[in-house]
């Protein structure tokens, strides 16, 4: 894999490591990229209130994710595993799920052929794209990707990514925003791996041709909240690999404009909402 591309309008002057593949292994921790809990009955509610006393503080923090316009969503690195045509998959082939029309789908739990559905807590991800005034932006292609329950990424053969998943395409997909500027994905709750806090990658394009990229960024979750959810969901790997947002190389300078608003439970299903604000 070549060095990871630096996204335009990036808010960081540098990253401590760079993504590269040497002998099929990415040599950058996704931490440069992309590296006392109790059961809760409800993870968050909108408006800063919570129906679960065990997650009230986490819920309040989570709801700082905007539901309208305002501050522009910060740009972030796409990391070593974008599979958007920008780098090698570790085996001498460019990783690009966007070149496959099957990537346009709402249910991203499986490979593009419908096989290899990933286990984990059910999660619906709703992403709204708006401008600074809060007006919805229709017709924008939103590409989402994230790791599985064990912190592994599809499309790549790397030690850091969990091994050889170059023939897999799970947990990646594209939707085009509707008249309300919204897309919805059916997925699972991502895990967490060493060096990185919980995160979900996404890119927004001007339209379904992917000709012009408007934003590359990442979504976050409040630290206490994700610990509570991982505990409820039995995500042992995520609980073992603890990196807080403050210690994360991507989120360490602040996540107030990148937090997901999460409702529901690990048992009954989670709904995560995010608003991407474009300049």
Tags for this model:
single chain, 279 residues, mainly beta, Protocatechuate 3,4-Dioxygenase, subunit A, four-stranded mixed sheet, four-stranded antiparallel sheet, 3 helices, 14 strands, 8% helix, disordered N terminus
What does this protein look like?
- The chain has three helices and 14 strands.
- It is 8% helix and 25% strand.
- It has a single domain (21-278), classed as Protocatechuate 3,4-Dioxygenase, subunit A, CATH 2.60.130.
- The strands form five sheets. It has a four-stranded mixed beta sheet, with no helix packed on it.
- Residues 1-32 and 34-67 have low confidence and may be disordered.
- By secondary structure, the protein is mainly β.
- The protein is globular.
Strand content range = 25-35%
Give the CATH level 1 class.
Mainly Beta
The total tally of domains equals 1
Give the full name of the CATH homologous superfamily: Aromatic compound dioxygenase
Q: Topology as H/E string?
A: EEHEEEEEEEEEEHHEE
Assigned CATH architecture: Sandwich
Tell me, briefly, the overall form.
globular
Largest sheet: 4 strands, mixed
Q: Count of DSSP E strands? A: 14
Low-confidence stretches: 1-32, 34-67
Helix content bin: under 10%
Helices, by number, come to 3
Q: Give the class from helix and strand content and strand pairing.
A: mainly beta
Give the neighbour order of strands across the main sheet. 10-5-14-13
CATH topology name, in short, is Protocatechuate 3,4-Dioxygenase, subunit A
Supply Rg: 17 Å
Distance between the termini: 31 Å
């Amino acid at each position: 894999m070549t060095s990871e591309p630096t996204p335009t309008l990036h808010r960081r002057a540098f990253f401590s490591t760079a993504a590269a593949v040497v002998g099929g292994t990415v040599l950058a921790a996704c931490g440069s990229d992309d590296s006392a809990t109790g059961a809760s009955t409800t993870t968050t509610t909108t408006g800063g209130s919570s129906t679960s006393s065990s997650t009230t503080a986490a819920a309040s923090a989570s709801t700082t994710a905007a539901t309208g316009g305002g501050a522009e969503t910060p740009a972030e690195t796409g990391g070593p595993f974008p599979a958007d045509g920008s780098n090698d998959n570790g085996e001498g082939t460019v990783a690009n799920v966007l070149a496959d029309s099957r990537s346009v789908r709402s249910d991203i739990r499986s490979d593009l052929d419908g096989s290899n559905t990933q286990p984990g807590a059910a999660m619906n991800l709703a992403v709204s794209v708006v401008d600074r005034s809060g007006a919805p932006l229709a017709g924008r292609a939103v590409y989402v990707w994230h790791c599985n329950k064990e912190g592994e990424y599809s499309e790549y053969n790397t030690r850091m990514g969990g091994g050889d998943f170059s023939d897999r395409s799970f947990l990646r997909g594209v939707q085009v925003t509707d008249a309300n500027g919204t897309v919805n994905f059916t997925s699972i709750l991502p895990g967490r791996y060493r060096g990185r806090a919980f995160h979900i990658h996404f890119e927004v394009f001007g339209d379904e041709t992917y000709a012009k990229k408007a934003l590359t960024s990442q979504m976050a979750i409040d630290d206490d909240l994700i610990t509570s959810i991982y505990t409820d969901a039995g995500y042992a790997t995520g609980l073992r690999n603890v990196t807080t947002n403050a210690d994360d190389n991507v989120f360490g300078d602040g996540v107030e404009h990148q937090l997901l608003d999460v409702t529901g439970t690990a048992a009954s299903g989670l709904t995560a909402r995010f608003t991407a604000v474009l300049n």
